[in-house]
Amino acid sequence: MASSVATCPCQKGFPHRDISPHREPERVSAMAPDNLRSFLVCQLLFLCAVSRQEGAHIQDQESTYDFTIQSGDTERLTLETGRNYTFLVNATGKWQNDTYSGFVFQLHTQRYDITLANTSACSNVECQTTGRNIGMVQLWTKASSTFLFYASTACSGNCSDRLKMPVLVAAVAIPVYDPIPGGCSLTSMLETDPHISVNFTSSSTTISFQDSDIGYSPLFNKTVPVCADYSKYIMQLDYYVYHRCLAVRDYATGRLFDAITDMMSPEKMGSRDAFLKYSDPKQVIFDSYPEQGVVYNVIAVDMNRRTRTAYVPTVTYACNFDSNMSSCSLHPSIKATDATIGALVGLSGLFLCFLGHTFFHVEVVVFPFLGFSYVWYLVLSVVTHWHHTVHLLSSPALALATAALFFLFWFFSGWYHIITILFGLAMGFVLTATLLYTPFSTLTEVFEISYVYALLLLCGTIFCIIPLVAFPRALNIWSCAVVGSYAVIFSVGMFTYTSLTDIVLRVVKNASIPGFIKAHVDCPLQTLDIALVCVWFVLLVAGVITQAIVSKRRERKFYRQQQELGFSAYTRSSYQDFPERPYTQLREYLQRRRAFRGSPDEAKPLMSPSAINRGRYPSQ
């Protein structure tokens, strides 16, 4: 039957002809060739129309699911793409006692969109909604105790290929006088829109939702509250934003549906992130964690009646299942540029951590290379809109040129005090950025002001080095250990996901993304993050101890040499564990070579030519 529909050549609007069998046979037999051809075409069109109707009946067939409202209960189904479904919701006996004022019917999927409507003849966006985490509010009416919802799943590519899609279905009851989620929808096409919109990039995730309406009781309120009284009741509603994080690259639908089920109930919410008053914009910005599932939900609280209700939970992985540019994958591929930069940063960090102070000549090049790579990446991210790969390639090139200028400055000046202070500022920046990455930055809303955040970062960077300014050797050792050990941890983030890379990248996001300063750091540390924190601490301690031991041995060697030369008045202040100015050393070396080559005593032969001749010819 399907093949007949596919090969049918009939087109809509073809002129209708009478093909009734009561027509006279002689007229048919006496037809001209053109009339006979038209008659055969009409018969073919008739058969095609019949087959099309049968095929349409098969394609549009619906599956009906009977669903009973039980507060907190859900049902997990497996639907197919490209089909229509009907959900019959039955009210329980508690509804007859005016216990509930309505319910929120919800559908949740992970990969594919689904459309939900409350009428079978819905043809516009005012009666339907589409997405992966959707829902509709149905208020209680005494005229009926059963409600119908119509869902349709879109085809994925060819409609002949039916794909299985797990779906979580729930009908969450709204007790009387609890706020109606999304009841005062001002920007959505739906009159009551309880779902949460999510917009994400690789750097930030923004959620937005509609205002709620105050609750009511069908027993005492004959009509549903309308938003005409919105200005009167808006002041008694507050909003709390919650989240719950999944494991990194955990795409199991079972654990996802478990988290969504818990987030449906106000009593089982995760961590609270934000509090919004009635006058605040209903929009919250979060930090993005690609390939990590995060479930968000909002609770509307009526401060006068002490009641609350939850919206429809929403999920984001900060990546697309149907996109090649930002795909969610269990085994993501590593770009060659990321691998190269990561290996370079990791090796440079290991050198600084354990050998930076010992080989100060090399440190003067490696340390500025790492520091200015970050600085140039920050500048390019703010000033330009280039691709991420272009930023990764341009930043090290510019940093290498800047490090060469930095080395020339030390080569001709030899001011190691200034060099160590600049290196100490890099250490202070890493430590302060780590502090601001913790919940310390959310203690007060003052930290969400841009210039306050910048001032706090600047003061923390300077104050970290004040105790060690008078001790350049200790300052340099600690700077190499802190920055070098974090560079090793950061390089790991170039190969696999870890939230520790966001310690310094969050500063870049605050400077380059408008409004990101108010983003919430929501997800806790994963198992890999905890392991890397331990590795960071071990590398830091080992680097400090190793360089301190090597420096102490060189000091003792210098002390023995002074004693052998007869300098008994040696004190610790006379020893500096830094090389002399390279330009001075080079100039003295060139002078010694010039003096050796141009000395008249060395140029005069030890024997005169006459003596040489007498030695050769003794008889003369």
Task: Give a brief description.
With about 625 residues, this protein is of the alpha+beta class.
Quote the beta fraction. 15-25%
Please report the number of helical segments: 16
Radius of gyration: 38 Å
Fraction of residues in helix: 40-55%
Unreliable stretches, pLDDT < 50, 5 or more residues?
1-61
Mean pLDDT: 78
Strand order of the largest sheet: 1-3-8-5-6
Which sheet architecture does the biggest sheet show? Answer: 5 strands, mixed
CA-CA gap between termini: 131 Å
The helix-and-strand class reads: alpha+beta
- In total, the number of strands is 19
Described by the principal axes of the CA atoms, the overall outline is elongated
Structure description:
The radius of gyration is 38 Å and the shape is elongated. Helix content is 42%, strand content 20%. The chain has 16 helices and 19 strands. It has 620 residues and is α+β, with helices and mostly antiparallel strands. The N terminus is likely disordered. Strand 11 and strand 12 form a beta hairpin. Strands 1-3-8-5-6 form a five-stranded mixed sheet, with no helix packed on it. Strands 14, 15, 17, 18 and 19 form a five-stranded antiparallel sheet that branches.
